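User: Need the bound-state model for zinc ion:
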Amino acid sequence: MRTARTTLLLLSTFLLSTNIAMAHPGATDAKGGHTCRTNCAKWGLEDGEYHYHNGNGSTQTPTPTESPNSSGDAKLKADKIKPPAKGKLSVYFLNVGQGDATYIKTPAGDDILIDAGKNEAGDVVVDYLKQLGVDDLEIMISTHPDADHVGGLDTVLTHFKVESVYAPKVSHTTDTFKDFLLAVKKEGLTIKEAKAGVTLPLKGVKASFVGPVKAYGDDLNEWSAVLHLAYGTNAFLFTGDAEKKSEADMIAAKKTLKADVLKTGHHGSVSSTSPALLKAVSPKYAVISVGDNSYGHPAATILNRLKSANVTTYRTDLNGTVTAISDGKKISFLKVK
Ligand SMILES: [Zn+2]
Ligand SMILES: [Zn+2]
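Assistant: Bound-state model below.
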């Protein structure tokens, strides 16, 4: 391991000194900055954040720029939703069009946000959180750097005090991801690594990451942070966009996957919710977070697979924001439509 690592470092240093572009997939922006990916020798130095390589090995962090993409989609607006029930676990699968955003209020009153949809969904998520009376977030989770998950998180960070931010140790070269990293930095926070085995410090519930189990190179969906949340005898599994490889690895690693409610992976794409995962989770309910899209999400195969397994399925495109309320024994659902 050590030898391989040293070789890799030497190789990366060589590449850095000869050709920065070679060592850094993705474009360097006009200011000479970029976001390092996992194969960058500098990754880990500043936890993968956006920075410059200015040729002599030192790094600087620029000030955040105005997000050019947050002008907003006129059609996208927040549904009217009900505030959380006191002393219960309330899970809101927020309707943010195509993308994912889930807000959780624990029975002890802690606030968790998993993803915030696309850039233009940022204001919508802020609106939802205000409707729900949220004043701060104990935990923010960025499942993976794709724009339909990480897009709105920078806007949320500028509107709410956030105590801890968790994300898997993978990076991306997009402006959207850079905006998120800069917003985290501006709040004086350091990203905590989301990976299998990491437990969230929350009272009254058991919340642990069960994925990612491994590193998945450039396969961003497979890197998704997967959270298992248990309250009493009820449990939820939030999968981000985790696909078959990650699903198989979590099963092989004997992670606790069983749950009453499954947030279906990757917007109901055929790439996720393998028969093996469905068997391991054996949910009573599934929620698909999806909007207008050209990818064919959700796939008929997955809808049929859930139906054959007697899983009651809700969809944010058809039902609007879907709310699940657990008293620790039973789960009830509210939907907008
Ligand atoms: Zn996605
Ligand atoms: Zn994705």
